[in-house]
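Entry:
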Amino acid sequence: MRSLRLLHLIQRYYPFQGGSERYFQSISEWFAAAGHTVDVLTTDAWDLEYFWDRSARHSQPLETKHQGVRITRVPVHHLPLARFSHRAIRRLMAESSRAGFPGKLPLLRAGSRFGPWLPELETVATQLGARADLINSANIAFESMITVAERVARRSDVAHVVTPFVHLGEGRSSKVRRYYTMPHQIELLRRADAVIVLTALERDTLIELGVDGRHVQIAGAGIDRARSTGGNGATARASLHETRPLVLALGAAAYDKGTLHLVEAVSRLNRAGTEVALVVAGPILRDFQRFADELSEQDRRNLHVLGFISEDEKRDLLAAADILALPSRTESFGLVFLEAWANGKPVIGARAGAIPSVVSDGEDGLLVPFGDVPALASAIQTLIDDAGLRDRLGQRGRAKVVDEAEWLRRVEAIYRGVLGTSESGMEPAPAGIRLVEGGESSHDGV
């Protein structure tokens, strides 16, 4: 089959290691290794806060290459008083999207120009897109990038695919959901040649909101087991000076990720006489840092905040951990669940977002309501007390993990289907994780 020329737009990219960023990195590097030409167009943001706070960390807007992928970064610009004006604009958009007044869509489109504000993006995207076969843009909460990708694709007669990474929050009335399902965002998805989603829940929600189901394709997610396993737990525990049971939180540390609730749950358990430690590894957002700085000395003894870690350190932590916890309301999948399961570890998630499509409560992990500290503490206590349950949940999870190559072949099938170059008329299997034989799921395909 002929090689493809691909342009991927994503808000941040390697060396940053967030969930959607890692997702696009795996896709980009896999296609490049297979002989395709891949450009990634991204921003110079490092910290998430840099999109609205110029004092946060950022990278140089330079062109680089990594693993055969050419990476171009454009600078984020900031409005006056950006820390306040950015949030005010987004809040106004989210609230306006629920109202029925005339002229709502033009107002939302105008506001989306600053989400994020990237004046140089269209010029660079036009240069790169003119020689592409397909453009895949993300994330729907950064819709200014998707809008530019759509314009460039239409002018250049290039296929446009969107991977929205929709966060659905705790339910239909969730404040989180409002920022990912505004009318102008759904309009962008309706016009795309294909929409790639990670779970059946995300697909069903978009169809309910008016996106043509024939264009919504479930790719799911997978991991490279070799890169995720084989760590030395003793090394991790020695570096932490820990002998207590370990709860591991991998990913951004923030309120919406449930990290504050995890700290409170672990503190509650220790005060009640159950010794347990929490390890937080990943980018530290300011709301969590302020929270951690105000902890008592007693509660700090239960907490290890590591920030960014290497892949080797992550493997060691996964080997050392007794439980992985991601009680988040802002997940479109949760790749860390797969990494924990690959190591045979049980997981705890929130009953929010896409997590119930990935974790089967009582089968391969435990689910708790987002923000419910007593329920979270109880779930941790249950797993600490029952080694047999930990093992059963971890092994059931291990059986569900899809290898990275299998997932990436689905993405290629979607790309080629959009381009009309598929060798068969078959659609890719709608799965992101594999069902345990004999098990049940409330969502088909996951």
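The radius of gyration is 21 Å.
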